[in-house]
Every structure is written in C-alpha cells, then in structure tokens.
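Bump. Still looking for DoxX family protein structure tokens.
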Amino acid sequence: MKLAYWVSTTILCTFLLWSAYTYLYSKQTIEGIRELGFPDFFRLQLAVLKIIAVAVLLVPQIPTGIKEWAYAGVGLFFITAIVAHFAHKDPIFINLINLVLIAILIISYVYLHKIKAPF
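Sorry for the wait, here they are.
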C-alpha cells in the first residue's frame, strides 16, 4: 500500500513541480495561459500554490487534514484546466492528460487514507 501511495504521489508532485516551473519560466506556457483568458497574477498564484501543495503532500509529518486541503486544491486545478481547455477548444489530448492526472490524484488520496488507517 505504501508503494502505491508513494508512486502515485511522486508522479503527481513531479507533474505539479514541472507545471509550476513552466508557469513561471516557459514563454509558451505563459502565452497559452493568457490565450485561455487568465491574467498573469492568476498564473503566478497557481505556480506558488502548486509548489505549496507539493510540500504538503510530500512531508509525512503534515497532518492528514491539511493534506486533504491540498488534494482538494489540486483537484480544483485539474477541473478548472479541463473546463478552460474545453472552452478554448483545445485538442482533446490535453483533457485526457488532465483526466489521467485526476485518476492519479484519487489513487494517491485513497492510499493516503489506507496507510493512515488505525488498523
């Protein structure tokens, strides 16, 4: 169970860190976010929040209740991304990736609770 948790959480956190990096430094990503209609301050907020979520999810000593807020925020990010890309009529492949990431998020969340269970 711990392996499933750590593999899914590592994949998720790797994506979040890569995404935060591109939100801050990739001209193509920055322009893409503008094309979706989001202002620059929102892009910067998302980058910072993704980095914070990674820290919360990876540090074992952080209470489960706080981790649940990080999961909720990341899930909201993926849902927002799906809606924005759908509205922008982007290729379906982008939303398929987001759906896979939601599945990985759910796997990580479920296994967090399995390894934290008292029995």
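The radius of gyration is 15 Å.

Edit: fixed formatting.
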